[in-house]
Structure formats: structure tokens, C-alpha cells
UniProtKB/TrEMBL annotation:
<feature type="short sequence motif" description="Histidine triad motif">
    <location>
        <begin position="96"/>
        <end position="100"/>
    </location>
</feature>
<dbReference type="Pfam" id="PF01230">
    <property type="entry name" value="HIT"/>
</dbReference>
<protein>
    <submittedName>
        <fullName>Histidine triad (HIT) protein</fullName>
    </submittedName>
</protein>
<feature type="region of interest" description="Disordered">
    <location>
        <begin position="118"/>
        <end position="139"/>
    </location>
</feature>
<dbReference type="InterPro" id="IPR001310">
    <property type="entry name" value="Histidine_triad_HIT"/>
</dbReference>
<feature type="compositionally biased region" description="Acidic residues">
    <location>
        <begin position="124"/>
        <end position="133"/>
    </location>
</feature>
<dbReference type="InterPro" id="IPR036265">
    <property type="entry name" value="HIT-like_sf"/>
</dbReference>
<dbReference type="GO" id="GO:0009117">
    <property type="term" value="P:nucleotide metabolic process"/>
</dbReference>
<dbReference type="InterPro" id="IPR011146">
    <property type="entry name" value="HIT-like"/>
</dbReference>
<feature type="active site" description="Tele-AMP-histidine intermediate">
    <location>
        <position position="98"/>
    </location>
</feature>
<feature type="domain" description="HIT">
    <location>
        <begin position="4"/>
        <end position="111"/>
    </location>
</feature>
<dbReference type="GO" id="GO:0003824">
    <property type="term" value="F:catalytic activity"/>
</dbReference>
Length: 139
């Protein structure tokens, strides 16, 4: 079964589409966190960020890069929070990669990306060194 976002791509359900090219599409979020809240997706269905092939990932970033100023200017935002919920445990509800562009305004009562974290770990220097070395070895 195709995702709700694939149905938008196919024109099977309506959406306020604000940009479209061969591989990506951007449309307004149906339940916006702020005026202008926009989603940018690859047209093909990939569940997680790293399921997206490199060439499409490049296109996806190009569309995000294009849409951020368009959204900010359109609603006269002071800033934007730009983020992916990457996986169910991170809050991803629609299993089709999507980048949120959320306009932000001075005094809007929202928080930074750091507000997503639960209990923060208290990591010793050697643990941080081990984690950094492990990540580096996989990059
Ligand atoms: P997630 O939690 O998966 O990162 O975000 C999914 C987003 O998709 C939510 O912000 C939600 O409001 C939006 N959304 C869900 N269904 C629809 C839909 O049918 N149309 C549009 N335009 N947005 C949707």
C-alpha cells in the first residue's frame, strides 16, 4: 500500500503543492505547527533518510535549500526549524521521508531542536572518545 504522501504525488488526494520537479515535491503540512509549515519529500517512497539513493538525496537537499527562503519570505518568518523525524521512535508517523520546514517567530513559544531530547546522558570523556571513534570508523 502506498503512503499518504505517495497519494499526494499521484494526485489521488489533494494537497497545497508549492513546488514540484522531477524527483521531489513540496506541499503545505495539513496540520501546520506554524503558518507556512511545509514538507519536502522525494516523489519515490523511501522510509528513512538513508534509504534514499544519493542522487535523490542531493535533489532533496536542493529542494529544501530552495524552499527555506521561499517559506520564510512568504510568512515573514524570523527563522525556520528544518528537521526530519527519521524513524518511528523519533516521531516519524508517515513512513515516507519528509523534511519539515517550520517557520519560527520571535517569542513563538517553541523550543530549539534540543527540546526533543528526554533525559540527557552524562558521558565521561573516555566514553565520548569511544563513541566518536566508533562513528568515525563507520563514516
Ligand atoms: P511526521 O510525524 O511523520 O514527521 O510528520 C508527518 C506530517 O505529515 C505531520 O506534520 C502531519 O500533519 C502531516 N500530514 C499527515 N497527513 C497529511 C496529509 O494527508 N496531507 C498533508 N498535507 N500533510 C499531512
Amino acid at each position: 500500500m502506498s503512503t499518504i504522501f505517495s497519494q499526494i504525488v499521484e494526485g489521488e488526494i489533494p494537497a497545497r503543492i508549492v513546488y514540484e520537479d522531477e524527483t521531489t515535491i513540496a506541499f503545505l503540512d495539513a496540520n501546520p505547527l506554524a503558518p507556512g509549515h511545509t514538507l519536502v519529500i522525494p516523489k519515490d517512497e523511501y522510509e528513512r533518510l538513508n534509504d534514499v539513493p544519493e542522487d535523490v538525496a542531493t535533489d532533496l537537499y536542493a529542494t529544501v535549500h530552495r524552499m527555506v527562503p521561499a517559506v520564510e519570505e512568504s510568512v515573514d518568518a524570523d527563522a525556520t526549524t528544518v528537521a526530519f523525524n527519521n524513524g518511528e521512535e523519533a516521531g516519524q508517523e508517515v513512513p515516507h521521508v519528509h523534511c519539515h520546514i517550520v517557520p519560527r517567530f520571535e517569542g513563538d513559544g517553541g523550543g530549539p531542536i534540543h527540546a526533543i531530547a528526554g533525559d540527557r546522558p552524562d558521558l565521561a570523556d573516555d566514553e565520548l572518545d569511544d563513541i566518536a571513534a566508533d562513528i568515525e570508523s563507520r563514516a
